[in-house]
Amino acid sequence: MTYRADAARYDTMEYRKTGKWGLKLPAISLGLWQNFGGNRDYPSAFEILGYAFDHGITHFDLANNYGPPPGSAEELFGQVLARDFRPYRDELIVSSKAGWGMWPGPYGDFGSRKYLIASADQSLKRMGLEYFDIFYHHRYDKNTPIEESMSALEQLYRQGKTLYVGISSYHADDTRKAHDILKSMGVPLLIHQPSYSILNRWIEDDDTIGTCGELGVGMIAFSPLQQGVLSGKYSTKAGRAGTRAENKNSTINSRTLAPNVLKAAEAIAAIAKKRKQSPAQLALSWVLRRKEVTSALIGVRTLDQLKDCLGAVGAPELTPAELKAIDAAAKGGMLDGRPNW
Question: Is the pTM for the entire model greater than 0.90?
Fold first, then answer.
């Protein structure tokens, strides 16, 4: 059966400018990090991806190493593009990244010009694309001159392999350096992708968020639900059955599920209940309260999780009293999410 997008797909989503630039992103974007790899079949993947697009999510975020195994998320999304999304390519923002380990040897990781350009070409091939809408350097590399990493992004931009360039998990000072180097090359730094949540505020602590606001660089916050902790699915009483955390190879570490963190999440969930929001919706509303934040980047395993997150769009603004209560609830469970390169 041929997919036809819902005619009302733009009616309820909010679209926000990316910094000072003209590109708008949906308030909620969908990332394909852990849930669209080799263990996901096409029908269940498209159930989520199609529903997302039918409800105004136009931005789909990937990276070379997303899976598992690495590369499989891009391959699956490439199939979706070819079979169902192809007529809508010009309505989509498709992003990818490189910066983490992808293949053996000294040229498959970090931030060298050789790695970034080779990886971008591989990702385009896996997805069957002629260009990305956004291509990021996935993490700062202290062992490679930042000029080299930015020159790779500049080449991809000049070659038309990406319409915009971005960075991810850069501290404030390095964000400014990246911006200035790219500007000297005549390339705008469109966007920064850091982790940010009620329980992880490193971009406030080192003023990365203020730096992006000053420079006119947009921000898309990943892990706004703190890997599901702020969705309410983990608690001090319940076990981990049926969640990602029960897998011994889970990316969720014990620190994130520590009793003090879960206790803080439960207190935050109580505030959400008073607002007649789900815990996930409150967490997203909190991230989106900042004008510097263009979009909140979610990852979902089920369609119900996606539907829940979409309920944050158009929610009433948080009041000063509610923000104060959230700060008090979070105080004992704060996590240090600063990139440590």
Answer: yes
